[in-house]
Amino acid sequence: MPDISAKSECQTVITTFEMTPGTCFDLMEELKDAYDSFIRHQPGFIGAGLHVNDAQTRIANYSQWKRREDFLAMLRSDEMRERNRRLSALCKSFEPVMYDVAASFD
Q: In this structure, what CATH number is given to the domain that contains residue 66?
């Protein structure tokens, strides 16, 4: 489970996907399968969440990793490279960006 805290030393990755409403369901299914079958089993994975907007034109993915290198190793694996090709075919664009938590509020 992700822990959103400025005290945390983990690597946060936020990925946004842009798509049409017609491909939103298919893209979400591919993402859920990627997490269930592969990503969550990778070294350093802490947790993630998938969010979809009301118009079904954007998906936001929040994930946390113990180390930046853990995320990069997963991303560069043959399995994830193949999955990213399928994801890319279902959306206009997607971009993973690494962040540090600057502040959190309860």
A: 3.30.70.100
Residue whose entry in the numeric block shows the structure tokens 């994830």: 80
Q: In this structure, is residue 88 part of a structural domain? A: yes
Residue 8 within a domain: no
Please name the residues in contact with 35: beta carbons below 8 A apart, sequence gap of 6 or more. 48, 50
pLDDT band at 84 (very low <50, low <70, confident <90, very high): very high
CA separation for the pair 10, 44 (Å, rounded): 9
Contact 97, 65 (CB under 8 A): no
Q: Does residue 2 have a pLDDT over 90? A: no
pLDDT tens readout for residues 17-66: 999 999 999 999 999 999 999 999 999 999 999 999 999 999 999 999 99
**Residues ≥6 apart with Cβ < 8 Å to 42:** 70, 73, 74, 77
Identify the domain containing residue 93 by its residue range: 13-99
